[in-house]
Design brief:
The chain is mainly alpha-helical. The chain is elongated, with a radius of gyration of 27 Å. The longest helix is centred in the N-terminal third of the chain and has 40 residues. Helices cover about 50% and strands about 10% of the residues. It folds into 2 domains: about 60 residues; about 60 residues, Orthogonal Bundle (Arc Repressor Mutant, subunit A). A hairpin with a 2-residue loop joins strand 2 and strand 3. Helix 3 packs across helix 4.
Length: about 140
């Protein structure tokens, strides 16, 4: 069913629709508050049964007590990825996968499941540091 043109709707009908939507939004807000209270109650009940702290919604731990990605620690490196790549690629031409492996072999730490993609993005974005020699082949400037 096509939507009516705004110019064809009376001001009274518009006001009525705005009031209807505001009332519906208020009802949903009340329902959300009730559900949040119920969730807190269930978390407390689960914690009492398991003898652990209640679950949080910030991603610290999942229901099985395992760490989630939000709670994991980042790998710390002395230099940023672009500097490590530049060091590895100086005087050499490598593909993305080779460069990623060489950076890790040189001591760059990462927990990333898509580190090769991160290397590729860095090589593409930092045109001031890297030169594309051929398809998928890069060197440091």
């Amino acid at each position: 069913m096509p939507r009516p043109k705004l110019a064809r709707i009376s001001t009274t009908d518009l006001r009525r629709e705005i009031e209807r939507r505001a009332a519906h939004a208020s009802a949903l807000e009340v329902k959300r508050i009730e559900m949040a209270r119920e969730l807190e109650r269930l978390d407390a009940e689960i914690a009492a049964l398991e003898g652990s702290a209640p679950l949080t919604t910030n991603g610290a731990k999942n229901r099985r007590g395992r760490r989630t990605s939000a709670a994991t620690t980042r790998a710390t490196n002395k230099v940023p990825l672009h500097a490590a790549l530049r060091e590895v690629l100086t005087g050499k031409t490598m593909g993305v996968a080779e460069a990623a492996q060489a950076v890790q072999d040189a001591g760059y730490k990462t927990h990333s499941g898509n580190f090769r993609t991160m290397v590729n993005i860095t090589l593409l974005k930092r045109k001031d540091l890297f030169k594309k020699k051929g398809r998928g082949q890069y060197t440091a400037k």
